[in-house]
Design the sequence.
């Protein structure tokens, strides 16, 4: 599923600032952030409310643009792209997973997963959506509507939807925030499996330290800056003992 080649950085930010104009007041959400994330990494971004982590995630996801600085996504400078170009980059490179699942209530799992393919004009959307649901272990639930699924199953549908366009990067914003601990561990196990077996780069925002410890690296934000950037020496493993050695191997570029 990973369309990036080589082992270089897929996310490269240099001196990124973001300033919002709030009436007569300027709010500096990011203050010269530089960050490099390599192909195949699994990284958590943490920080208190107002630290800039959500702004940073929006810029990484091409949902917002920096006030200044340079952002290269898989080698492509996206810092000053227009909206149409950014939308194209998002559909080709990125998959998104959100805390609230964002599923359409009146459509079944299969139809929810098909949505990005409909927007992209794909012809083989039914077979690709089925394959994505099979990849997240929901082959037997694909014709069920969201209200017929548990919270963990709904989030897996959302992950399948993120996978269906074969992104090289998945961005997850508090993906376990609406789940109990067991379902949250299952979702993190799925992310670990996708990271190890498919080489997909995964970046997630979380406020839960035990969730962040499932990743290989934790970036802490504070007051719009990176306060620390640390390798996790022994990540928690939710995907079974078969992944323990592979999950623990840091990847560089």
Sequence:
């Amino acid at each position: 599923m990973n369309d990036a080649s080589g082992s270089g950085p897929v996310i490269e930010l240099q001196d990124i600032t973001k300033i919002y104009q709030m009436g007569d007041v300027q709010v500096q959400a990011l203050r010269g952030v530089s960050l490099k994330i390599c192909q195949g990494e699994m990284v958590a971004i943490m920080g208190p409310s107002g630290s800039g982590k959500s702004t940073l995630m929006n810029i990484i996801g091409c949902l917002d643009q920096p006030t200044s600085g340079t952002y290269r996504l898989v080698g492509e400078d996206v810092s000053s792209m227009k909206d149409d170009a950014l939308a194209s980059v998002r559909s080709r490179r990125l998959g998104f997973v959100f805390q609230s699942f964002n599923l359409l209530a009146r459509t079944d799992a299969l139809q929810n997963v098909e949505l990005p393919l409909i927007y992209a004009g794909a012809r083989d959307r039914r077979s690709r959506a089925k394959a994505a649901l099979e990849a997240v272990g929901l082959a037997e639930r694909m014709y069920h509507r969201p209200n017929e699924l548990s919270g963990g199953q709904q989030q897996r549908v959302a992950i399948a939807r993120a996978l269906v366009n074969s992104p090289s990067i998945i961005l997850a914003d508090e993906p376990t925030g609406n789940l109990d601990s067991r379902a949250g561990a299952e979702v993190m196990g799925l992310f670990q499996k996708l990271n190890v077996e498919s080489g997909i780069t995964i970046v997630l925002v979380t406020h839960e330290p035990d969730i962040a410890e499932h990743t290989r690296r934790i970036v802490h934000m504070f007051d719009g800056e990176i306060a620390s950037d640390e390798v996790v020496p022994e990540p928690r493993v939710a995907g079974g003992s078969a992944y323990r050695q592979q999950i623990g191997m840091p990847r560089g570029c």
Observations:
- Confidence is low (pLDDT under 50) at residues 1-6.
- The radius of gyration is 18 Å.
- Residues 173 and 205 are 5 Å apart (CA to CA).
